[in-house]
Design a protein that fits this description.
The structure is a homodimer of 198-residue chains.
Chain A (H helix, E strand, L loop, with lengths): L6 H17 L6 H8 L3 H7 L3 H25 L4 H16 L4 H9 L6 H24 L9 H14 L3 H4 L5 H14 L11
Helix pairs in contact in A: 1-2, 1-4, 4-5, 5-8, 5-10, 7-8
The structure holds a DNA duplex (30 and 30 nucleotides).
Chain lengths: 198, 198
DNA sequence: TTTAATATATACGATAATCGTACGTTAAAT
DNA sequence: ATTTAACGTACGATTATCGTATATATTAAA
């Protein structure tokens, strides 16, 4: 049956996602995926009707996973600071994962099949997070040396960075990138202490 | 003759670079380049022996251009800050010029033909600036907890904010905005000193 | 203007990649 | 032992790609 937890299927999904996020939807082939995943083509067609179906399944899984992670953060009893960090990290780890490559492809091909779904999901994530932050700032539970509006704007812009190849391309892992951004967001470029330029 | 300024050749180089920087060296074909450039294959092979030769020529041209720009900055008698700005601009505008895509490909394929050349070039561009910054950091004149390259990127992005009315519109004066941005840039979201979360 | 040289386009054969499937094989469940 | 699910091999059909041989147009020289 369509055993969703088959090892072979997992291998296909994993390899498929890797190649997909790197090369886009057009420049990959099922043969390549099978080759790299160590799976025969017949097995591939056992689980997926074709490449398109596989992509759809992968994206669907991805969005589901992300939703679950978001809910987990929301429901958790982490201190609010940690929640914010978790959100930002999630957003960055996902925006890249969703793939700058795919973002671009989707953007460039308007009538794209999964465009709306992804956009909707994206909005959902951002709005949910920003609304929470706004609320806390308005309630005075968060104090910052920066105007709240400025903060919100910056956070919004930062999510763009994660889809910018010039930025993402410098980091080996998404974790490293997210960590760096968080570090900057909270503490700025300069460490505390005397600072001189020239 | 191998007219280096032929229109057709330019079209090939231009399109070739676009596709190359986007899809990498492996996932493009000369037929595709010719198709997109509006050039016949025969013309392609008039100017280049094959795809590899074309890539080599493109990269060579690119590096030469970049070298010239770097030297121009170095030789200029601009004040130090202006030189830094120029470097930032060079690095950000053109300078992922090699394209994150190629950087990654080269990084992942050690025995790559142009790896050394490109690495050397990259060092020349980045080191020139970053070494200066790092020097200042080491000398205690600048202290930072953020990767200098990240800093470069962020600075560049901040210049975008200044052109975004959603951002500018919040401030009565330009000074207020600059102050806010600098405050954020230097100290991050959290001010040093008494900052409470929750 | 005629002629030679050069630039560009078309057509081609050879090879390889890709798709989706028919069929055979293993391994486990009944 | 027999059925059934999972998986691999081999296949035909189609398409892409390479590099070249040949044909045409354009330009420069005589």
């Amino acid at each position: 049956m369509e055993n969703r937890s088959s090892k072979k299927r997992s291998a296909i999904v994993e390899t498929g996602w890797r190649l997909l996020s790197y090369h886009g939807t057009e420049r990959i082939s099922v043969e390549e995926i099978c080759r790299e995943a160590g799976v025969s083509k017949m097995t591939f067609y056992k689980y997926f009707a074709n490449k398109q179906a596989m992509i759809g399944a992968i994206l669907k899984d991805l969005l589901q996973t992300m939703d679950a992670r978001i809910d987990a953060i929301r429901k958790s009893d982490l201190p609010y600071q940690e929640k914010i960090k978790a959100f930002i990290r999630l957003k960055m780890e996902q925006a890249a994962p969703l793939g700058w490559r795919l973002h671009k492809e989707f953007r460039e091909c308007p009538g794209h099949k999964w465009l709306d779904e992804i956009k909707a999901w994206n909005d959902k994530v951002i709005r949910g997070f920003l609304d929470d932050v706004k609320e806390k700032i308005a309630a005075g539970e968060i104090r910052t040396n920066v105007n709240p509006e400025t903060f919100l704007y910056i956070v919004e812009r930062m999510t763009d960075w994660a889809a910018d190849e010039r930025f993402v391309g410098r980091y080996v892992t998404v974790e490293a990138m997210a960590s760096e951004v968080l570090n900057f967001l909270f503490y700025g470029f300069l460490g505390q202490g005397a600072v001189k330029w020239l």
